[in-house]
């Protein structure tokens, strides 16, 4: 059970990191509309 929880936590953190990275790229490309649409999901 602990292994499953650990895997879920790692995947969640990985997804958060990817979302932040994509969000920063969109902001750096000066495209606030698309960034806002992704964050609102």
Question: Can you put this structure into words, describing what you see?
Answer:
By secondary structure, the chain is an all-alpha fold. The protein has one domain (2-39). It has two helices and no strands. It has helices at 2-28, 32-39. The longest helix is centred in the middle third of the chain and has 27 residues, at 2-28. Keywords: Membrane, Transmembrane, Transmembrane helix. The chain crosses the membrane at residues 6-22.
Percentage of residues in strands: under 5%
| Element order: H for helix, E for strand | HH
Domain count? 1
- What's the story with the biggest beta sheet? none
Global structural class: mainly alpha
Shape: rod-shaped
Write down the overall mean pLDDT.
76
Please count the helical segments: 2
- The poorly predicted ranges are none
Distance between the termini: 30 Å
| Helix amount | over 70%
Number of DSSP E strands: 0
Gyration radius from CA atoms, angstroms: 14 Å
Keywords: Membrane, Transmembrane, Transmembrane helix
Transmembrane segments: 6-22
Write the layout of secondary structure elements.
Blueprint: H1 2-28, H2 32-39
Helix pairs in contact: 1-2
Transmembrane segments: 6-22
Keywords: Membrane, Transmembrane, Transmembrane helix
Q: Can you describe this structure in just a few lines?
A:
By secondary structure, the protein is an all-alpha fold. It has helices at residues 2-28, 32-39. The longest helix has 27 residues, at 2-28.
């Amino acid at each position: 059970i602990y292994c499953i929880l650990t895997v879920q936590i790692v995947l969640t953190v990985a997804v958060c990191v990817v979302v932040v990275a994509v969000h920063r790229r969109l902001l750096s490309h000066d495209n606030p509309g698309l960034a806002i649409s992704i964050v609102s999901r």
